[in-house]
Design a protein that fits this description.
Layout (H helix, E strand, L loop, with lengths): L2 E4 L8 E4 H35 L3 H10 L2 H18 L6 H22 L6 H16 L2 H11 L2
Antiparallel strand pairs: 1-2
Length: 151
């Protein structure tokens, strides 16, 4: 284990700080963010996309109420499923979080206009962890651009 000398103040002797302590915190933060990504992927894949793709009566009723029909329901369900899967792919996770955040802005607008604000807080709550993922994993956007540039 590596040790680093860090001056505590000008009047005291240097303190010894383990370099592993800093990396341990960073590792914990990475694991916590990954857990959030997996939970969001499960939410979008199972709780959001699946009812639309299976034409669950509540999903059909919701889309009929806003006048979009089954075509939009299946399209949005497929996009949510794709976003859920992309949240788990390292090179796509930042882009997926950005796309799902934009989707949540649209969901918020629909909730406010077509459903009189019922459940309008849900999309807003989901934007916060998606924005955190998009920001934290933003380095992967460069990797994705390099991969696409090879074509």
């Amino acid at each position: 284990m590596s040790e680093t000398t860090v001056p505590v103040s000008s009047t005291t002797t240097p303190a010894v700080v383990s370099a592993g302590a800093l990396t341990g915190w960073a590792r914990g933060a990475r694991i916590a963010l990954r857990v959030v990504q997996v939970l969001l992927a499960l939410f979008y894949g199972i709780a959001s996309a699946l009812p639309k793709l299976m034409a669950h009566p509540t999903a059909v009723e919701s889309f009929d109420r806003i006048g979009w029909g089954s075509g939009a329901m299946y399209t949005i369900g497929a996009l949510e499923l794709a976003g859920a899967i992309a949240l788990l792919v390292p090179v796509l996770q930042s882009l997926a979080a950005i796309a799902l955040s934009a989707h949540m802005v649209g969901a918020f607008i629909v909730q406010v206009t077509a459903f009189d604000g019922q459940n309008a807080a849900t999309p807003l709550i989901l934007i916060a962890p998606l924005a955190l993922i998009a920001w934290t994993r933003r380095a992967h956007n460069g990797k994705l651009l390099r991969l696409l540039g090879r074509r």
